[in-house]
């Protein structure tokens, strides 16, 4: 059975709140298990399962605190399995480094060999309602996930 791996990169909690809400919505729509990773460690993540990454930018485009270790671990990796993934990048458009962390992890995972199955969602916390933005986005992601888990 599919077990979706949800990774959460947060410093002040907004992204965790959104990821928890998203997990509830996904469970209501899909018959799958979900593993929440609030402080993801690369070695314990299942690379045979799909990943959904919620990542806030902090500092000057750095990863949210709960994924700083993961960032360091990822820099030591040469390749990953071709698991399906998608990224929800959280930020504020007033920063030059708007959503840089989410953009970075998206690019890195693709370069390492993972399969991006759906367009990255970028949420501007100054303009967007994060839950509404996710709700608008996730129907397309579910279709993409269904196609790749059924094939
Ligand atoms: C000190 C600080 C630095 C930030 N740096 C960035 C940044 O470089 N790029 C960006 O898009 N947003 C940046 N933000 C905005 C955060 O991504 C935004 O506040 C987000 O909601 C934080 O999510 P979190 O509560 O899950 O940590 C920054 C916020 C703070 C407080």
What's the gist of this structure?
The protein is α/β, with parallel strands linked by helices. The protein has 4 helices and 7 strands; from the N terminus they run βαβββαβαββα. The mean pLDDT is 97.
Question: Could you characterize the architecture of this molecule?
Answer:
With about 150 residues, the protein is of the alpha/beta class. It has one domain (about 5-145): 3-Layer(aba) Sandwich (Rossmann fold). The protein is about 40% helix and about 25% strand. It is built from four helices and seven strands. It has helices at about 15-30, 70-75, 100-110, 130-150, and strands spanning about 5-10, 35, 50-60, 60-65, 85-90, 115, 120-125. Helix 3 links the parallel strand 5 (about 85-90) and strand 6 (about 115). The protein starts with a strand and ends with a helix. The site of flavin mononucleotide has 22 residues, from helix 1, strand 3 and strand 5. Flavin mononucleotide binds near residues 11, 15 and 64.
